[in-house]
Fold each of these.
Amino acid sequence: MGIVGIDPGGSAVKLYDGKQFRQFPSAIGYDWRERNILQQHGDHDYDWAYEGRRGFAGTLALHESQMADSLKGDSKAHPEARLRVLIALHQYASGPEHDIVVGQPVGTHTRNQKELIKKMLIGEHEMTINGRRRVITINRCEVAAEGVSAGLLAGAKGTVRVIDIGSGTVNYGTLLDGRYKDLESFTLVTGMDTRRNLDLDSFARQIAAYAVNKGWSNRDTVHLCGGGAEPIQRELAKYFGSAQLLKAGMSEFANVDAFYRIAKGLYANEKN
Ligand SMILES: Nc1ncnc2c1ncn2[C@@H]1O[C@H](COP(=O)(O)OP(=O)(O)OP(=O)(O)O)[C@@H](O)[C@H]1O
Ligand SMILES: [Mg+2]
């Protein structure tokens, strides 16, 4: 039985099983076609088949799908997110059965959305990638809140603030002595890839203004994660003097690291 954390982000799918951090582009195309030229495009060329549909994913979709896209937004209760999770398990998880924790933005981390995600993931799935068929069984699945969960990595007492700057969302999280504080955790539905011209300074100002509006103080210790954390840290430090990286050099993996820790806490001691 494998315990796995999976963060099916709008830009990249991240997986952590306690040993290795993995990621691949979230792009998925449903317009499968026979290819005459079989050039390799990257390390994540996936020709997938699932439930009667077939298409390309990862680096193959980025290069060869006409309509490759990756849904960005404030919910992951959609079939595309299921494909992302299943591709991750197919490629990188060992064994046929899994207990997983996946992520959902704080703003839509509701009972209803969580149930939808669990319902679409728990059970047996048959998927073929690049001709290799696997039956993937998800026995247990829980849905963690993005951003605020990553705050667990800070391991600090008192108030911990986290800003998770992703491709399509910015998640704000507040923890008090290791416990989530719903009141001061929320999601801004914009990100590093949703703007026509990314001006880091104005984006940092928008991120900070939203936090201050919701009651954060610019004297708070703020931890940054997500792929946008490192490029924007300097600009954000103008507004939050103490802004620091939660997982320097691996900012995009902070959420999935936390999801794995949560999964261990939930599943490791349970008797099957
Ligand atoms: N050096 C960089 N400069 C600019 N942008 C960067 C850099 N490194 C990463 N990014 C951006 O970070 C984003 C990926 O971050 P991350 O993996 O946290 O997003 P995600 O989790 O897939 O998205 P979301 O959380 O919104 O679902 C991409 O939009 C990418 O363009
Ligand atoms: Mg993310």
Amino acid sequence: MKKLLASLAAVVALGVAAPSALAAGGELPIDHWPEKRAHELAALQSGARLFANYCLNCHSANLMRWNRLQDIGLDDAQIKDFLIFGNQKVGDLMTIAMRPADSKVWFGKTPPDLSVITRARTSFEYKGTDYIYSLLRGFYRDASSPTGWNNVVFPSIGMPHVLWQRQGPREATIDRVLPVVDEKTGRETMVREVSVYDAAGNAQVTRTPLTGHAAESFEVTFKAADPAAARQYDSEVADLVAYLAFMTDPSGAERVRIGVWVLVFLAFFAVLTWWLNREYWKDIK
Ligand code: HEC
């Protein structure tokens, strides 16, 4: 019981800590994930393929069994031949060989289990699906960071941009207005800071002090070397997020489908009851 409470507390702490770390930079760019992908089998399958190929080396999905992928239209042979590496069976859970203690040494943080990540990252401000859709599209090269990457949604993230070859090189311009405290006078002034990161991650930063009142702001623009590849990448990430949302709630789509029929049935039954009631009382009244 104590253990259970401790792990519950840890989950709550995680959920609360992540968004506040994000909020530190002012308005962060959170885009809307195209939700209709959640209902497209082809999107879910492409997401599952990306997940198995690119994410399962570092992240586990310990609550998910491989054969649950039957729900998105894959059969056991496809799951075994195209998705499972190593000697796992289709009835096994999506575990990984990397030990949490090792990954902590390698990355500074243990990559979290992704079974229910879209729910774990849902906050009052945004949905977890929108957050992860933005996170995976928010990477830019930063030569000063240990992994060589940084992220506008999660500054100094310990995860490298593992899908970068699919997206292609990009330049990033981060335009911020933020308060800076003068060390000598202790006075706070607003500064506009524009950092331009080239495709190799070298930054050029210009700071201009602002006079008068200025609100904090945060604006990012990316310039992709191959805009078509970058657009294709956005679409792939939408598929991947659809798959992550499916793992979080595998029976979600089914529940919505059944729910519609339940409402149709209830509506029909309500009419029937009203009509029967009228028929019974017709002669008595
Ligand atoms: C090379 C190892 C590695 C791979 C591969 C990897 N990640 Fe990560 N990931 C990490 C690490 C390390 C963290 C923890 C980062 C931190 O907290 O600073 C992380 C964190 C995350 C988070 C949580 C971010 C948060 O808000 O706390 C998500 C979501 C995520 N990864 C998704 C993915 C997806 C999706 C893939 C596959 C495309 C993937 N990762 C592939 C190492 C990896």
Amino acid sequence: MAVRATVHKLICLLFSITMIASLTFAATGAIPRGTTSSAKDYNSINAGTHPITNALIYPNDTAWKHPRVECLIITAQALAPSFQPLAELKTRRGTFTEILTVESIYANSTFTAGGGDNPTYIRNAIKYYHDNEGTEFIILGGDVNVIPIRYTYNTDYTEAYFPGSYATTYKPTDQYYAGLEGTWDEDDDGKYGEQNRYNTENIDEVDWTAEVFVGRLPANDATQAQVLVQKIIDYETNPPNGTWYNKGIFGGAVSQYQDLGLNKPSVDEAALSEFMIDSYFNSMQANRIYHCSSTYTCPSNYTQLNTANLAAAWDQGAAIVNLAGHGDPSAFGGYIGTSSFSNYLTRTGAATLVNNGTLPFVYIFSCSSGAFDIREIGSSPMNLGDSLAEALLLNQYAGAIGVVSAMRTTYFFEDDTQFEALNHGQDRFFWREMMINHEYQPGRTLYLSKMSYIDQFINKYWNVDLNYDPELAEREGYMVYQENFRKNLLTYNLLGDPEISIYTGIPGTFASDITSQTAYIGDTMDLEMRSMTDDLVSGARVLLNGSGYYIVGQANELGMVTLPVPLDQALVGTNMTITLSGHNMKTTSKNVTIAKDTIAPTMLQVDIPASIVDYRGTFTVNASGIDAGSGLRYAFVVFVDEMEAPLTIHRMDIKSVSGNQTIFYFKFPDILPPGQTLLFYVVAFDASGNYVIARPTELFSYAVQVSSRIMEDALTATIIIGVPAFAIIITVFFMVSRKTHQKRSAQQLHEMDYRGDPNIFKK
Ligand SMILES: [Ca+2]
Ligand SMILES: [Ca+2]
Ligand SMILES: [Ca+2]
Ligand SMILES: [Ca+2]
């Protein structure tokens, strides 16, 4: 209906251009120029006919009763009941969520018609929901044997721990379910995600930009699904008290020890941690747990990184954890000497953490600690259990709320002093996305940060790319690391709920007076979302729910949100529930009693130009009305012909509201018709449909004369138009030359080499 109303208004506008021009001339007496006068108004209260339909004022959007599926949970039939409470949690606070089973996907020809395999069908279903329901978040409700993962073609490195072609060629990623453009197998050879030079079409098969935000809850059965879902529910609705909400743990290991014989410098991830703490985490309390090499000086306030200290800090509670160093599917660790190595957190250790309910969101910068397919496809000895990331998720009351980690071998450059490449770049871009760009939903954080990393690292240097360029490859310094750069992006995946809001501070309470106890049908609620301590809550969500309506609004940067109350007589006397939620805020609900404004407006006074309007000038109308109850909310200028039949309708803007008084404003949008007279009246409505019509007399409309065109005017116009035309020519000339200059600067930037060490290092 909203769309129809817009179309209607457009038609009106077109109508006005043609019809106003044909209004007949009706001379009025000469009036002094340059003033406005208050017309003597004759008010018809709730009487008299007007052409304003309800649809024009009170949209009744079908989406209010059929909300879009913002979040989709894909799981197996056997696990679906376990995910039901998660769907309800989200739906209750305004993220309408549905469950779709893989059994129903595989049996639905809409999703299987084009052929392919099970991941293809699942992705087709996601595409369908994204296209038809506007779905934004996808929860893969199950481990890889429940919801298969896509193995992409990538030959960067022969992986330890994985059998056969899983070691050499096929590397897993859930990004396949996020990037929905193309098929990821454009040459149809069954090898998905090939870079351009392995693809007979010579195109990149990966879609690097996410259309939806994907996270996986790695349950193997209904019991595990219940554990994962209950952790999310408790995190959101009943988190433990304490100071853990604004604490961050930064575990910095040593990625490389100095080796003078091999001319290798040390790489201390404490340095990356310090950079991120300084740049992104000012609002939080940092717990530094580092191991530092002999060539790097740890800051004075650090704790020694070892298994016991890391577990102790974790058990005390934190909102976020960043671990940077080395890893394998079962552990996170780092070098403690040139060739000696220590693990700091193993999957066994993760399963025995006791940080009861104080669940951090964890980013692990390492190799393979997030290989959540290891148990399903791995070979001995790693097939004895789940990956470290899964162990953190599946710890029943402790561990983590979510983990971003790598499924396979990842990379770094050893002198990446700006922390912009590969593991360094991706790690810090992730936290920058969360803390600086305020993307607290992990699915958005991960996929948006991947896109900024591509934009600001991969695309920044001529010699760095995700695809092979044979011409550039002729030049010295070109990095033939496309497979490494590609896999480093694809292999970092999210285990956890992509939609949940991650705590970065102690949760606040919404102010109690944000909403009033009653609302009128047909009204809008204009709400300022703020906390009891008067902080604005930008991005906060409001759900108005009841009698089959599900109406959602989201606050802008200033915390303002507008929610419509349907003009539905059936709502009068009922209670609707209004639910407020937001980042670092406790979700709260209360009832709003829906009433009807039965008090008619008392007055509408119209100001019109007191003189003949210059046809080259502007024509404006002000109207001031008074209504008890909901107040006058909408007003229209209705232009009529000499027989008082409506020609065009123009909505007025609200200029100000003060108590019961509303002042409206209208500016004629088209070229004024020279020598003609505009005939019109004004009609204004309160929220519930009571109205008042203002005219000068009971029978006639206001008349405003437009001056007629004379020859001198035409000559003057020629001169006036001539001068700007010359100015435009000059301006365009300068704009073009400026653009050429800008292009040259961009070219110079593009020519810069990536200054990192040309040798890439495995984690
Ligand atoms: Ca292919
Ligand atoms: Ca895309
Ligand atoms: Ca698994
Ligand atoms: Ca009223």
Amino acid sequence: MKNIYLSVTLLFFLLGCAEEKPKQKLNGENLLTQKCAACHNLDMPPESYENEIAPSIMAVTFHLKDFIKADNPTEHKPKIISFIQDYVIDPSAEKSFCDKESLESYGLMPSQKGKVNKDELEAIASYMYDTYDNQILLKQMAEKRRLRAMSLHERVIEQHRCNTCHNIEEDKVAPSFKMIAQRYEKKDRETLIQSIKEGSKGKWENKVLPMPPFKKLSDDDAAGIVDWILGLNP
Ligand code: HEC
Ligand code: HEC
């Protein structure tokens, strides 16, 4: 009898082990940050290349995309993923696509064996392939240039969509920026910054909507747009 119990327990135990764990979807972006950012800069493009201890992930990915060729375009990504899966665990000067000079200045990448596994590397490499992309970089740089060319108030209004409710001249669901400028003075600067960052309601007659808070607006941007609004009053 005891034996039967034992075998049944054993059977369940074995079944339990054999049952495949559902494969979780790993988050490549988080893993890249956790496992690789200590040495590799993840920005696209990096703000600066000074004091680098390893090439940026953007440089690494662009590099691999250039050097690793595939006859069939659908094979390109899988090939790069396998390269990364292998290189991170077992790096060597022979495998590296880094030019000799860079390799000497950075030193060979230390193996990350035991710190990251194959599945995690697949998620990381797939994320790298999709994110560090020439087209995306060009678009982001063009967008940055466009925003930089704008004056501060134009940029804030566009980024936070203030003009869905406000107009400079026209009284809409929200008071026009000129009406606000007429009601307030320089000494009310802090009050207005507060209204924008925390929201406002009941201060303007016949406005049914409250003004939502814009907590993500930086202090500098909030102050800048308040100065611009107050400046609309001649
Ligand atoms: C301790 C620092 C360090 C960590 C952590 C690190 N790397 Fe590196 N990595 C380097 C250095 C240094 C190089 C440049 C020298 C070389 O190519 O081996 C490099 C190069 C690479 C290359 C380029 C190989 C080539 O041929 O151009 C890849 C791909 C790479 N790393 C991926 C990763 C990934 C993915 C992670 C996170 C799982 C990671 N690295 C974590 C230091 C690091
Ligand atoms: C969803 C509509 C809406 C959006 C979007 C919106 N506002 Fe308003 N705003 C209002 C309304 C409504 C009021 C009047 C609230 C009241 O009666 O207190 C208001 C009031 C204000 C006031 C005056 C606050 C006070 O203390 O009298 C300022 C300044 C202002 N908005 C700036 C902005 C700026 C800057 C943005 C974009 C970052 C913005 N608003 C986006 C609806 C909006």
